[in-house]
């Protein structure tokens, strides 16, 4: 999982080296976020609680967070997206109650997410021997060349996958 470091306020870059990826669940789960920073941190905290409630069951923890996010009056106003992954699953969690597992294991969120997603899918298909870390780095660099809200200050975290 990778994230760029850019934080913007309107059209102004406020920070170029933010870390948008966190390790949760004793380091066994990666969580990336996009959107309003305070909202994302509030959701990260709630998601970490759900992981404690449902250890070793990422889909259930994600679903419980999505349900709470959608039904809680205060949480409903939060504007962020979460991407979570463990050794088995990659999921997108949204405030509309969505928990989406992409069929190819590749996901992108944030303003440059669709550019990075397209680049990653192309790299996976064209260069099957490329490591996941290299695919993340290259696709994020491509996104940063297209999207003004994405920069090249990358943080990449990796978890071993179960086959």
How are strands sequenced across the largest beta sheet? 4-5-6-7-8
Number of strands: 9
Which segments are poorly predicted (pLDDT under 50) over 5 or more consecutive residues? none
Fold-level CATH name: Glutamine Phosphoribosylpyrophosphate, subunit 1, domain 1
Strand content: 15-25%
Report on the architecture of this protein.
The protein is α+β, with helices and mostly antiparallel strands and 163 residues long. Helix content is 37%, strand content 21%. The chain contains four helices and nine strands, in the order E-E-E-E-E-H-H-E-E-E-H-H-E. The chain has helices at 37-53, 58-71, 113-126, 132-146; strands at 2-3, 7-9, 12-15, 21-24, 29-35, 80-85, 90-93, 99-100, 155-156. It is globular.
Question: How are the elements arranged and paired?
Answer:
Blueprint: E1 2-3, E2 7-9, E3 12-15, E4 21-24, E5 29-35, H1 37-53, H2 58-71, E6 80-85, E7 90-93, E8 99-100, H3 113-126, H4 132-146, E9 155-156
Antiparallel strand pairs: 1-9, 2-3, 4-5, 5-6, 6-7, 7-8
């Amino acid at each position: 999982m990778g994230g760029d470091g850019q934080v913007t306020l309107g059209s102004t870059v406020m920070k170029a080296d933010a870390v948008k990826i966190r390790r949760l669940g004793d380091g066994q789960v990666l969580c990336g976020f996009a959107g309003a920073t305070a909202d994302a941190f509030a959701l990260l905290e709630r998601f970490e609680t759900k992981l404690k409630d449902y250890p070793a069951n990422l889909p259930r923890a994600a679903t419980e967070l999505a349900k709470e996010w959608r039904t809680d009056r205060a949480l409903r106003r939060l504007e962020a997206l979460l991407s979570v992954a463990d050794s088995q699953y990659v999921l997108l969690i949204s405030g509309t109650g969505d928990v989406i597992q992409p069929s190819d294991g590749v996901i992108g969120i944030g303003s440059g997410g669709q550019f990075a997603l397209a680049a990653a899918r192309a790299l996976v298909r064209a260069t099957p021997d490329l490591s996941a870390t290299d695919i993340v780095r290259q696709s994020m660099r491509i996104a940063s060349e297209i999207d003004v809200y994405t920069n090249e200050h990358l943080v990449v975290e990796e978890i071993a996958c179960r086959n």
